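In response to reviewer comment 3 from the previous cycle, which asked for concrete evidence that the modeling workflow produces usable outputs, we include below a single protein chain processed end to end. The sequence was submitted unchanged, and the resulting structure tokens are shown without manual editing.
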Amino acid sequence: MDLSTAALLLVLIAFVAANLPWLSERLFFVFQPPGGEKGPWLRLLEWFLLYFLVGGIALGLEQKTFGEIHDQDWEFYAVTLSLFLVFALPGFIYRYDLKGHLDRAARRRR
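The workflow returned the following structure tokens.
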């Protein structure tokens, strides 16, 4: 796998993973949350854990592509966390804004 393919794959994985907590009512698509619905704090916790999962995938791709893992300072992790937050924006908007409008429109059509 060359560098550009690995980078594109990582960006796609990060974008999908950042949006997953807002698209499903199950924790990690497996467990039913207490009360039957995930609250905002559970979604944020799941999002944060997915950030670390994607980071692990990135380390694996870096090891496979370059043969070593480069040392990073705190700025790198601040930027990647911010980018993961920006990637999560479509799922967040869908969950907390668009979904309510779509549900009301569906009820009016009935």
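The mean pLDDT is 90. We consider this sufficient to address the reviewer's concern, and the full set will be provided in the supplementary archive.
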